[in-house]
User: What shape does this take?
Amino acid sequence: MSAPITKPESSRRQFFNGTVRGAFLFLLGAATTLLFRRSQPKRTVWQIDPYKCICCTRCATECVMHPSAVKCVQVYPMCGYCKLCTGYFEPEPISLDTGAENQLCPTGAIKRRALEDPYYEYTIDEPLCIGCAKCVKGCVLFGNGSFFLQVRHDRCVNCDECAIAIACPPQAFQRVPADKPYLMKDREHQA
Amino acid sequence: MMSDALNSPAKATRRQFLRRSVGGASLFGLGSASGLLSFPAQAEKPVVGKGGGGHTLGSEFTYDLSKFYKTDPALIQYDEAAKITTGFKELRAIAVGPADHVYAAGDQVVRVFNKAGERVSEFELGDRPRCLAVAATGNVFVGMKDHVEVFNTSGAQHARWKSAGSDAVLTAVAVAEKDVFVADAGNRVVLRYDLSGKLVGRIGKKNPEKHIPGFIVPSPYLDLSVGADGLLWVVNPGRHRLEAYTFDGDLQSFWGEESLGVKGFCGCCNPIHFARLPDGRFVTSEKGLPRVKVYSTKGDFEGVVAGPELFPKQIENPHTAGVSGVCMDLAVDSTGRVLLADAFTREVRVFTRKK
Assistant: This one.
């Protein structure tokens, strides 16, 4: 009859050693991963510099997405809320109302809403916008330039070689950090 | 004895070693997973796009103003006679002073040129100028973003007036005999000061009882001038017209209409600047469709000083044509020469009436 094998009782010191060792390994694993991730190049996405864009319509025709991943956006703090919005109305509108014959946008992607007289609010209906920049040109030419084109990242597939970037005459397309994916305009630029 | 041997770390069993190794690996893996979770997931593998390959849109997608870029030669009443090179990186405003000297403000300097275009003097400013006016005494009133600074004839600072507020964007100054009027585009109002810089009134705020519609100023352009008629004329750019006020702020008359055609003012908000000829007629400048025109004292279109074809750089890039620091400031000297500040060439372009 051999003596019964008893499970060894762990001492406080052993428990403490195990805990420290475990924590050390956990932290080592986390640090290794973080260092590895930081050493990787930052993820970037495509974006348009609005101050370089010349409204050439290529964004509408060159994108792999149909309709394009480039859309007109509106910066409300810059907008003049004009009654005669040159981004909304044809250059020589018959009247300043929402009649289709008066609207500049061929796809009807801009909505006009009356505010306090004589101010109007203009919003982009993105699913209808094809990124042709016709409204952008009208807005920057006469107005404050609150309409401008941006790559919308809910549609953009982030091609390695963006077809629009290749075709863009002023080379307004550039890579920007994915955590700051938009290049916005600001009021200071105009004043 | 046996128990002591098992408890000794030096004599760990294979099972203990295995258990510790597995435990350590698990913790290391857990740590790695935490590190991964602390960053957003990487993008999917990038793809290479195949774009439209030359496909073009129809003409309905093109914003075309080309038919307005050519002026009927019969309407052009002026020739470009001279150019004054200012030497500025950024030309902001011009004015005519005594002896028809041309004062140009830009960068942080005011430069004075004689009638022949030779630089006579200059003085430095402490800030970026936005507008200026010269009194009959030779004192120079320079509008900064939110306040006015006054300089004497030798360029020494005479006074610095109180700020008009953080929202103020001063865009024009005009000096009368006892008053100084300052256009504040940020607050859409004209400020009336006395010559010492004391604010004595505000002109142009919306007031239905006095039939004052209020200034509509979508972009930072609000110009004004005091005429020989004793009235303060102010552009109301969003309404495409010029409005005349008494110095006490009563609206007397107005003229102007919206039109891309040569007789009216184009776009959302024009004209951006104007000046008065010696006989009281008006000279106006517009942005978007850059052009300078003359109107009678009653506001009837008379002719063109400079058509869009004289501003090719403004037309070729829409961003430069519209809002990005366009300077088309105007001044008129005692002989009726029209002076235009061209922000793109940074020159004062001088136009004289055709003979």
Observations:
- The mean pLDDT of chain A is 90.
- Chain A has one domain: 44-184.
